[in-house]
Amino acid sequence: MRLAPEVNPRVLSLALEARDCAAKNLSQALSPRLAVIDYSLPSTERRLWVFDIAARKLLFAEHVAHGQGTGENFARDFSNRDGSHQTSLGLFRTTETYNGKNGYSLKMQGLEPGTNDAAMSRAIVMHGAPYVNPAAAKQQGRLGRSWGCPAVRPEVAQAVIDSLKNGQMIFAYYPDTNWLAHSPFIDCRRKENIAASRQNSKTSSILTMSDLGSVQATR
């Protein structure tokens, strides 16, 4: 999808695969819209893209903050733990909007156990924040940081949130080897094949032991 040539093709490919895999595994329709966040990029660069997949359109290309505990200009550390003030990786499904202490905000349901499934209890939401200021970031060397939320510029917050509310997907990426190896939505076809192969081997072993028991019983 060359609607946003500045997006790392591998990251976009992983995001699209995760969206497809989640729809299949959760028995849901494909989300028409997908947000991709590439936290391997510095906060001083645009690293959030919102795609309308069905219409093949790029809706937004924006700056996005990461958590105070995640790093300075570059994100380094990620967590699912409450109080860490760190960003979580993985695939999220959006739910409803509300008006809270950070204004108009979008709730996010983490879909990956142990990686981001505490997002709701941690109040990890998308919202606007004045510290997401690209001009100020050039002066201080980084964007301001959140408590783990993917905060965006106040000027675009409502439009971005409205484009993603009610069941769209947000994919937060970083080249973390542990997450990439264990995410249920990354490389899921291969992982499903491996799991099926193991199950078949286990079944074959059970059958073999059962057959052996039958032979011994007839002696």
Q: What class do helices, strands and sheet pairing give? A: alpha+beta
- For the record, the CATH class of the largest domain is Mainly Beta
Span of the ends, CA to CA: 66 Å
Query: What pattern of helices and strands is seen along the backbone?
Result: HEEEEEHEHHEHH
- The count of DSSP E runs of length 2 or more, i.e. the number of strands, is 7
Assign an overall shape: globular
**Which value, in Å, is the CA radius of gyration?**
21 Å
Q: Predict the CATH topology of the largest domain.
A: L,D-transpeptidase catalytic domain-like
The chain-level mean pLDDT equals 91
Biggest sheet: strand arrangement: 3-2-1-7-4-5-6
The CATH level-2 architecture of the largest domain is identified as Beta Barrel
**Main sheet makeup:** 7 strands, mixed
Q: Point out poorly predicted stretches.
A: 215-219
**How many domain units?**
2
Percentage beta strand: 15-25%
Characterise the protein shown here.
- By secondary structure, the chain is of the alpha+beta class.
- It has 2 domains: 9-186, Beta Barrel (L,D-transpeptidase catalytic domain-like); 189-219.
- Helices cover 35% and strands 20% of the residues.
- It has a 7-stranded mixed beta sheet.
- 38% of the residues are buried.
- The model is unreliable at 215-219 (pLDDT under 50).
Write the layout of secondary structure elements.
Blueprint: H1 9-25, E1 33-38, E2 48-52, E3 57-62, E4 90-100, E5 103-110, H2 119-122, E6 125-127, H3 134-140, H4 154-164, E7 169-173, H5 177-182, H6 188-218
Parallel strand pairs: 1-7
Antiparallel strand pairs: 1-2, 2-3, 4-5, 4-7, 5-6
